[in-house]
Amino acid sequence: MSAWKPFSQPSNDPIKSLVIIFVLWKFVLVLLAIASPVPGYDTSTLILIRGHDLNLSRRTFYSEFHTIRERLSLSLVRWDAIYFVKTAERGYVNEQEWAFSWVFTRLIAFFAFYLPSSKNALESYIWAGLLISLVSHLLSVLVLHRLFITVRKDTPNSKVAFVAAVLHIISPAGLFLSAPYGESLFSLFNFSGMLLYAKYQRAQQDRSSRHALKECYLVGSGCCFAMATSLRSNGLLSGLIFAYDVATLLPSLLGFRLDLIGFRRLLATVIAGLLTAIGFLGPQWLAYEEFCGVAMSNGHVRPWCTKLFPSIYSWVQVHYWDLGFLRYWTLSNVPLFLIAAPMLWLLVQSSFTALTDQLQAQILSTPSPSTSSPSRNSGVRQTTLRPGKETESDDIERGCLRRLALPQLVLALTTFTSFHVQIINRISSGYPLWYLAIAISLVKGTPLYVFGKAQSSASSWVVHWMISYAIIQGGLFASFLPPA
């Protein structure tokens, strides 16, 4: 292997390079948070930290946040982070708080217990949440790098895998991946589940590996997806990977052509899917026991308790936040749809290229020496397909890419029709395929498609947009300003 040069050849030692890039990027975002004016637009965090002492003047109230630690605490506990931190400290009290991950708040409470105590009891919970997010983000970067190496059966110093991991570092999620939010931990578990699934697919290719080990990969993948789903309910979409596999095995099962190996594979797939579902149902069962168990016997029943599928998640979304199919489609929300448009396009475009095998064709392609300059007609660099017959490894790669595309595509469509659309810029951070599509375009010179037309420079523009959006949004977040 060539010598590692952090600036000219970073992929020669990708782990070390990724850690350095991660630290530098986080340093920039932390400086941005420290430099942002406190308490910002809203004083919710200030009141939460300092209490309701109205005898303090505004000047005294604000000037007490003079240390870097205090400014960071104030700048990074914004929006949903207020719910996560406060719920971790005192448990769930209000119904709408159950929309915020029970697992994540319990993790914050667990780690806060081991942190040094301070004069402000809440500060331990804040820093526990910050540390969980930072460590989880770094680990998810490394897992994503390994995921693409496994999917492509590539070398550890793969430039495509390295660039994709760097893109995850500079994700437009920005400070959301550093604040006490569940996005970083969700990414870690969602990527880990996909990595174990890719290892399972590669083990299928290895005739010498034991079947029990293969099925352990599959069940382990389901466990990771269960954890991801317990952090964010959209993690349930990763179960589509298992649904895809069950659909491919059903014809053999119904035709009584499924052998013992195939049956074990089907059983492991179903178990993995059920584990993913448990990650969604488990916290809701706790909420049901809290609000519907004793309450129903006393006659004080919340409306959602009597539904056929009593989901507190759905109830909170509809009742408190007025969400639902096309409910967010109002004239006042048009700017938010414009903010979300670039990411929605990336998710849909990369998903379709994977589902139609165009993404794999770009992976297998190499720049043609005769067409190294842009085409006169399209302005796009031409590529030629790598010579040789398609191997079993290529077929596994194609299958993995198709499966990774499904959760991402459904996420984009449901966000566009039913969610606060602007959150796509942060929740997309936990889905890997769009990083790969941009990385392939940057490394191999293949184009991205905008409104059906190939654009050779689109990938570089996307990177510029990611960096710009992360910085601008970071400043807004630290000042408690939308979008969030």
UniProtKB/TrEMBL annotation:
State the protein's name.
GPI mannosyltransferase 2
Region annotation (Disordered) maps to 365-394
Q: Which InterPro entries match?
A: PIG-V/Gpi18
Q: Where in the cell is it found?
A: Endoplasmic reticulum membrane
> What Gene Ontology cellular component terms go with this record?
endoplasmic reticulum membrane; mannosyltransferase complex
**How would you describe this protein's topology in the membrane?**
Multi-pass membrane protein
Compositionally skewed regions (Polar residues) per UniProt: 376-385
Keywords associated with the record: Endoplasmic reticulum, Glycosyltransferase, GPI-anchor biosynthesis, Membrane, Transferase, Transmembrane, Transmembrane helix
| Function, in words | Mannosyltransferase involved in glycosylphosphatidylinositol-anchor biosynthesis.
Return one Gene Ontology term, BP aspect: GPI anchor biosynthetic process
- TM segment ranges: 15-35, 98-115, 127-148, 160-178, 236-254, 266-286, 328-348, 431-450, 462-481
Primary localization: endoplasmic reticulum
Q: What is its EC number?
A: 2.4.1.-
Question: Which residue intervals are annotated with compositional bias (Low complexity) in the record?
Answer: 365-375
UniProt-recorded Gene Ontology molecular function terms: alpha-1,6-mannosyltransferase activity; GPI mannosyltransferase activity
| Family that this chain belongs to | Belongs to the PIGV family.
Source organism: Glonium stellatum
Tree of life domain:
Eukaryota
Pathway listed for it?
A: Glycolipid biosynthesis; glycosylphosphatidylinositol-anchor biosynthesis
What Pfam families does UniProt report for this protein, alphabetically? Mannosyl_trans2
